[in-house]
Write a structure and sequence with these properties.
The chain is of the alpha/beta class. It has a single domain, classed as Maf protein (Alpha-Beta Complex), CATH 3.90.950.10. The chain is built from 5 helices and 7 strands. The chain has a 7-stranded mixed β-sheet. Strand 6 and strand 7 form a beta hairpin. It is globular and about 50 Å long.
Length: about 200
């Protein structure tokens, strides 16, 4: 297997996954090479949505497919924006729109109560109807700042402060983020499952 399809049209995600899989000798192809229509994310959890997207991409491409569903869960907002992170400020919202809405929702909330987690659910299917998909989940803890900082990454990265590094996710060097992030943790789990189940190691 030398090609898999990434079930996303998000350029930021494609860049991150291509970097994370760079040593695997596997080409990560964008879903847009095969289909323009995105899967309807009708699940009620990150895991459900990741599976829906992976099956959709595999069906459209005829190749194994990998999908992630990820987002930000803010403690003070009872886990919002959660699975709606990408469209928190409405359909077609920009990263800036979503960040502005989040800052407004947290207006007046003190620093010690601005805890949050990035969550990632990763799903891999060999075929559209694969009955035994590989599924991994991971969480990355931090807190939400009162203003954006940094110009790397995407989404809520400029607001997500990583305590142990003293920087936002958008300020972290690429190699550090690719070691600490929720997505990097999920990929590490996926690599272990891949080697056990796909390669028999």
């Amino acid at each position: 297997m030398d090609k898999i399809v990434l079930a996303s049209g998000n350029a930021g995600k494609l860049k991150e996954f291509s970097q994370l899989f760079s040593g695997w000798q596997i080409a990560v192809l964008p879903q847009s090479d095969f289909v323009t229509e995105e899967a309807a994310e009708t699940g009620l959890s990150f895991i459900e949505n990741a599976l829906i997207k992976a099956r959709h991409a595999s069906r459209a491409s005829g190749l194994p497919a990998l999908a992630d569903d990820s987002g930000l869960a803010v403690d003070a907002l009872d886990g919002a924006p959660g699975i709606y992170s990408a469209r928190y400020a409405g359909a077609g919202a920009s990263d800036a729109d979503n960040n502005q809405k989040l800052l407004a929702a947290l207006d007046g909330v003190p620093t010690k109560k601005r805890g949050a987690s990035f969550h990632c659910a990763l799903a891999f299917v060999r075929t559209p109807d694969d009955p035994v998909p590989l599924v991994c989940t991971a969480r990355w803890r931090g807190r939400i700042l009162e203003h954006t900082a940094g110009d790397q990454g995407f989404g809520y990265d400029p607001l997500f402060f990583v305590e142990q590094e003293g920087l936002t996710s958008a300020q972290l060097p690429r190699e550090v983020k690719n070691r600490l992030s929720h997505r990097a943790q999920a990929v590490k789990q996926f690599e272990q499952l891949w080697r056990e189940q796909m390669l028999g190691e």
